[in-house]
Amino acid sequence: MTITAGLRSVAVGVPRTIRTNQHWREHRPQLIAESEQRSLARSFAPIDPSPETQPFDAEMAPYLDDPFRGAVQRHVLAADETALMIEVVAARDAIAAANMTAADVDLLLVCSLRPDQLGPGNAVYLARELGLTCAAWNVESTCSSAIVAMQSAVALVKTGEYRNALIVVSCTYTRDVDPDDTLQWFMGDGAGAFIVGQCARGEEILGFKTASSIATCGAFFYELLAGVDGTPRIRMAAGKTASRLLRNSGTRLVRECCAGAAKAAGVQLSDIHFFIFNTPLAWYDKFCARALAIDPSKTISTYPLYANAGPALPAMNLLHAAHAQKLAKGELVLVYSIGSASNASAMVMRWSGVGLGPIPPRSPAAILPSLDEAAAPMAIAGATALDSSTR
């Protein structure tokens, strides 16, 4: 008997603190005044045009007058919060949304970007918190970790070795970027979780395409530094050539992976009803739509809500699209993500019977563009909400 594997549920977990742009307007006004000479602006500013970079630059252009480059709010870990805490929230919601219990999970795949401790990732720590006794291991492909883990899970489920795999990814960028580095502005924290399990025909994940993003090596990097009290700390920073590295590879990778996943699924891109792109930038969904020559109304971006939450973004965009009823039973959905110095990856699935976790809270005071419309840079630039704890 041929075993098919499909997506059974998706959920998201976020820290309780929501930080809006007003935080920096109040506490770092000089930083905003100097923002065009800082990391964020240097990483996302026009460079010498070429056919390869034209789609990216065309969609970025409306955001160049905004020092925050389209970011509005982001969830930020508090001092007493860890990656494991938000992973637990996402995992429990995914299990519940699939109408399962922890006993039904027989494989756990985890990517924590970064883990809470040096050395091993969070997989076994999360298994302990969830009361799992199954196999648990770490899978890391930076921002493409969710799709790469799903590709691994689908292959393992289809062999019959495992029946239900729980995939959990998290991002804690904000604790690794200096407070005076403008890269803070486009980064957020969060977690996503998925259940991949055996399913009936017509409900399965149909195909994948993964390609290494070699060209982006050095765009962003981690280093070990001495903190103000002399203790070691990990810092994330942008490389000097980040802007060029990201542009030169973006168009090629989205085309290669999306076309490849469609081919593996036995369909054409024109057969896809909806596209879920990870959105590490305010304009990334529109850039991908332009690069693929598809209708941008067939995409969604949660960037105004979460900023760049790394590997959690596919779960965030998929969850919001489903709750907004943009995905109908039986329709083909393509999910794509790009990860720096790792992989770009895409998958095609037939949407059916996917359980949904709850939508996380948002700042009630934030001026947010509709997720059904193209983000309005002028409205974004004027957002004036305060930090808030809403959970």
Question: Which percent range describes the beta-strand content?
Answer: 15-25%
Largest sheet: 6 strands, mixed
| Principal-axes shape call | globular
Computed structural class: alpha/beta
> CATH topology, which one?
Peroxisomal Thiolase, Chain A, domain 1
The CATH class designation is Alpha Beta
What would you give as the CATH superfamily? Answer: Thiolase/Chalcone synthase
Strand segment tally: 15
Enumerate the spans where pLDDT stays under 50 for 5 or more consecutive residues.
373-391
Task: Output the helix-strand order.
Answer: EEHHHHEHEHEHEEEEEHEHHHEEEHE
**Beginning-to-end CA distance, first to last residue:** 47 Å
What features would you highlight for this structure?
alpha/beta; 391 residues; 29% helix; four-stranded mixed beta sheet; six-stranded mixed beta sheet; Peroxisomal Thiolase, Chain A, domain 1; disordered C terminus; 12 helices; globular
